[in-house]
Amino acid sequence: MTTQLPSFFRLSQEIRAMIYDLVLEPVEFSNLYTAKTAYTPETCPLLYVHWMITEELQARLYKNHAIVIPFQEPSEYVISNRTFAQHINNTTRRMKMRTNKIIVEMVQTKEARYPDNTLDRNGIRKNEGDFWIDIEAGGDFPRRVVHELLWMRQDLPAVRTIKFVLWEGEWSMYSGGWTEPLQRLLDNWGELNIEVEINLFDYEDPDAFDGGMNFIQVWYHHCEPIERISFSANDFHWDDHKFGDYSGWEIEPRCFDSEYWEEMDPDERRVLLASGEPGDLVYLGEVECRPLFVKTYMDRAGEN
Asked: What are the residue ranges spanned by the domains of the chain?
């Protein structure tokens, strides 16, 4: 709809800017698979009222905007050999030019299964329990995702952060298959920072202080010395999360190391030990993380 709005444009630029600040809702993220623009007539009607308003609003669009690539059941992506990078061609030029972050959101809620006729390199039928090991989908999935992200790089010149969000589910979350692809991403995308976030439910380390490392420790010790990669792990109560309470706690990844306790200030150690067992989690603070476009699900029936 195009109309004459002479009275509105008699207002000073400062007043119009105040009106835009009040009316224009920022769009923080868009789904790569479905969004052509982040600002539709439904989400931003003001943008479609008059061409002069449209022009004035251009500089306000896509500030701190992220494109989200959701993987609901990443096993299906692996098995089907489908791709996602081509969807960037469906988005507007302004979205591509101004988006500064990519979020890769992942959850596997069903047991991953190979097609019945899938054979390994020795001609033996693949074992379902091996689906997410590093030499199978556990390595193939991150390698393919990074390959497609690098293909998209030329269309997203403003992107400086790629965040990988892994939700607990029916899959392996170890870092082994991710190590080489993430390094390749850093090597081939200048000025890029990578964030890795793992979200868990009622986490307990079954092998605390056994001399080995759980997957949180493995991720932390891999990422910590790399300047352009950050890692965080969060813990949530599933019974709260499933009803829409997305508050939780950030885990101190060093709490599983005996050295962490040995080097701690004695007074602080006494306080922590008084509140729980040495194998209990130590939290850095409260967080709130909600799934953006994936649906989380945990089957706790077999745990009782």
From this structure: 62-303
